[in-house]
Design a protein that fits this description.
binds zinc ion, mainly alpha, about 130 residues, 4 helices
């Protein structure tokens, strides 16, 4: 069983690593997208398909990077481990199992029920 500060430090390290990984990947993708595609390339051209794939991946990664950075900020502001929905402290035992949890168990169950009933947009779900 880890103590809360240990879990927080571990989680922050993981997030920083993730941030670096995503930033590197984004750089690679941006370069790939800049490569010129023939002006007369037609629909279905492999270069175009490849570029569209990269553009989609790029925006996906940008979203993930934003979430990772938001998580790091919340740790730095001392908000890590606080439920985003009810503001109660998320128990250390839960953080140990799910260090990326942003909701306490009660709220998590509630939110999952709402999602199942289709009352909440998918993008408000907990991180992955
Ligand atoms: Zn809660």
């Amino acid at each position: 069983m880890s103590t809360r500060p240990q879990i927080i430090a571990r989680e922050r390290r993981k997030l920083v690593e993730e941030q670096e990984r995503i930033a590197g990947e984004l750089e690679r993708l941006r370069e790939a997208i800049q490569i010129e595609v023939d002006v007369d390339a037609e629909e279905g051209d492999p270069d175009l398909i490849e570029r569209e794939k990269n553009v989609a991946l790029l925006s996906q990664l940008e979203g993930r990077l934003a979430r990772v950075q938001a998580a790091i900020r919340s740790i730095d502001k001392g908000r890590y481990g606080t439920c985003e929905r009810c503001g109660k402290e998320i128990p250390t035992e839960r953080l140990e199992v799910r260090p990326d949890a942003t909701l306490c168990l009660t709220c998590q169950v509630e939110v999952e029920k709402l999602i199942k009933r289709g009352q909440m947009p998918r993008d408000q779900q907990e991180l992955e």
